[in-house]
Automatic annotation (TrEMBL):
GO molecular function: pyrroline-5-carboxylate reductase activity
An example Gene Ontology CC term for this record: cytoplasm
Catalytic activity, EC: 1.5.1.2
Catalysed reactions, semicolon-separated: L-proline + NADP(+) = (S)-1-pyrroline-5-carboxylate + NADPH + 2 H(+); L-proline + NAD(+) = (S)-1-pyrroline-5-carboxylate + NADH + 2 H(+)
Residue ranges constituting the Pyrroline-5-carboxylate reductase catalytic N-terminal domain according to the UniProt record: 9-102
Transmembrane spans: none
Pfam families given in the database record: F420_oxidored (PF03807), P5CR_dimer (PF14748)
Organism whose genome encodes this protein: Leucothrix pacifica
Keyword Repeat among UniProt keywords: no
Binding site residues for NADP(+): I12, G13, A14, G15, N16, M17, A73, V74, K75, P76
Protein name according to UniProt: Pyrroline-5-carboxylate reductase
Native organism taxonomy: Bacteria, Pseudomonadati, Pseudomonadota, Gammaproteobacteria, Thiotrichales
Known function: Catalyzes the reduction of 1-pyrroline-5-carboxylate (PCA) to L-proline.
Length: 281
């Protein structure tokens, strides 16, 4: 750690997820000094405009030279190239490495960066952009308790976190929460289209659907009841909700979601370079 109990955090990549983490840390008043590296001056200009206290550079090696934590926020396709170029600089200081790239394993990151490093893999989701994210985290055995706490505090700045002892569980996290927002957006899209079919305007339909989704999620989050119990409480026998639920279940909704999540998990496994291991039923 740096002097005066401040932590030097370097972001490699200045995209949406990096910016959401920076915003969360600054809004939380975290005792950190932030450096951001990106080859795009346009991306760095966004950082400079919103958070002028951040140090910005196009030189990745310079950015990591004083880092306690390096957040790898680049696309999976270029992760190997970025890591290998940084390996000698990273090995000199051996900071905590945190990756938010889907499908890139801890062993790959360690190999590309020269090995023997403390690494935390994170699987966040897009609601982190509005500080309402859900992230799954995995730490290798070189991560100590202080580093684990640091990684958690970074991700908690944009939402909730869950730790997993088995890295392979991040495939399930990807299927459920990483890809999950898109499933809900699809449901909302279908509901809005149907609502417009009743004669509601686009804006009326959108507001009804979006606020209903928000309220249902908030109620589920704050209630001690299970989702199944909450559903039962709003489903009166012989009523309108029961008619809709019966139709959805008759259409095989539960099985469709089960197959969809398994397909997402399988794809995550394939993208990581491993053989598919989750059986479809």
């Amino acid at each position: 750690m740096t002097t005066e109990n401040r932590t030097n955090i370097t972001f490699i990549g200045a995209g949406n997820m990096a910016r959401s983490l920076i915003a969360g840390l600054i809004d939380d008043g975290a005792s950190v000094d932030i450096t951001v590296a990106d080859p795009s001056e346009e991306q760095l200009d966004i950082i400079r405009g919103q958070w002028p206290a951040c140090i910005t550079t196009t030189d990745n090696a310079q950015a990591v030279s004083q880092a306690d934590l390096v957040v790898l926020a680049v696309k999976p396709q270029i992760m190997q190239m970025v890591c290998e170029a940084l390996a000698s600089d990273i090995q000199e200081r051996k900071p905590l490495i945190m990756s938010i790239a889907a499908g890139v394993s801890e062993s790959s990151l360690n190999t590309w960066l020269g090995g023997l490093l403390p690494i935390v893999r994170c699987m966040p989701n897009t609601p982190a952009l509005v500080q309402s994210g859900m992230s799954g985290l995995y730490a290798n055995t070189r991560v100590d308790e202080e580093q684990r706490s640091l990684a958690e505090s970074v991700m908690r700045a944009v939402g909730m976190v869950l730790w997993f002892d088995d890295e392979d569980m991040l495939h399930a996290v990807t299927a459920v929460s990483g890809s999950g927002p898109a499933y809900f957006f699809l449901v909302m899209e279908a509901m809005q289209r149907s609502a417009e079919g009743f004669g509601l305007s686009e804006e009326e339909a959108r507001l009804l659907v979006v606020q209903t989704a928000f309220g249902a999620a908030k109620l589920a989050l704050e209630s001690n009841d299970s989702s199944a119990e909450l559903r039962k409480k709003v489903t009166s026998k012989g009523g309108t909700t029961e008619a809709a639920i019966n139709q959805l279940q008759a259409s095989g909704l539960e099985n469709t979601f089960d197959l969809a999540l398994k397909a997402a998990a399988q794809r995550s496994i394939v993208l990581s370079g491993n053989k598919p291991a989750i059986e479809k039923s």
